Amino acid sequence: MPESAVLELDRFRREVSLGLALGSEADVTLPVVDDLGQSPVVVALGSERLAVLLRRVQAVGGYANVFVQREAGVAVLAFLRASGAVDPASAEDMSGAERPSGEATVDLFVEYLLARPDGILLPRSLGDEPAPQVVRARTEPVAR
Fold first, then answer.
1. CA 118 and chain centroid, separation
2. Whole-number Å distance between alpha carbons of 122 and 134
3. DSSP string for residues in the chain
4. Closest CA to 43 of 17, 73, 61, 63
5. How is the chain split into domains, by residue range?
């Protein structure tokens, strides 16, 4: 990742943290809560690769409230394990051969999600071997 992108990601991470602690999101209940009652937060830039974002989500246990900095503004994605999703059957299944490329940008992934209000099912990893568990990702409104 170029140094400028690292600096931009760090700036965005601080902005999200401050917004959640003291700003406009301070009174908002985050949509994702993990098995321990925590609401993990992950940040990403729209220009990053999808595989990088999925590794970050896995690093926090597979559940995450993901804030994405895009040219069009901030998008919030809810990543949950399929077993924790209210109705995973309504989500589009992309956990098999139709899964997205890890080389796709996060921005392209967000655009795809915006057209699918019920969310999608993804493998935990976009590597060559299919993963037995899936995550559910769905866009969520965010007050800015």
1. 15
2. 5
3. --HHHHHHHHHHHHHHHHHHHTSTTTTPPPS---TTS---EEEEETTSBHHHHHHHHHHTTS-EEEEEEETTEEEEEEEEEGGGSS-GGGSEE-SSTTPPPTTSBHHHHHHHHHT-TT-EEEES--SSSPPS-EEEEEEE----
4. 17
5. 3-140
Strands 41-45 and 64-70, sheet pairing: parallel
Task: Say which amino acid occupies 105.
Answer: T
pLDDT tens track for 28-65: 788 888 889 999 999 999 999 998 998 898 889 888 99
The two most distant CA atoms of the chain are separated, in Å, by 43
> Among all chains, which residue has been given the structure tokens 């992934």?
109
Backbone angles phi, psi at 2, to 5 degrees: -60, 150
Q: Which residues pair with 79 in a beta bridge?
A: 64, 137
Q: What is the pTM of this model?
A: 0.85
Radius of gyration of the chain (CA): 14
